[in-house]
Design a protein that fits this description.
The protein has 98 residues and is mainly α. The chain has 4 helices and no strands. It starts with a helix and ends in a 5-residue tail after the last helix.
Length: 98
């Protein structure tokens, strides 16, 4: 088996990180459209966390770094965006006021 074949079979975790990161971005964008509800934000945060976990695993396993880092960054950004929107929504409702 050649080296390129070995790498193509060993990039599953990096591919999962990238696809989870892209899915989390798509869900985050769809959250801001008027047709969908808050559950897309929750889904975006979950997919972002999944992308971060897969990205870290892929980097530790020595898989293709570009896919792993891209999935890691996309997942981290959308997870942080989801947390920021939730905190803003809770502050707007007045949960944190005394």
């Amino acid at each position: 088996m050649t080296e390129t074949n070995a790498m193509s079979h060993d990039s599953g975790t990096a591919r999962n990180a990238l696809s989870s990161g892209i899915a989390s971005v798509v869900l985050a964008v769809l959250f801001f459209t008027p047709w969908f509800g808050e559950y897309l934000l929750y889904g975006s945060m979950v997919m972002g966390i999944v992308a971060v976990v897969f990205g870290i695993l892929a980097i530790k396993r020595g898989q293709p770094k570009g896919m792993a880092v891209t999935g890691l960054v996309l997942g981290l950004l959308t997870a942080l965006l989801g947390v920021a929107v939730l905190i803003f929504a809770l502050a707007f409702v007045g949960v944190f006021s005394s």
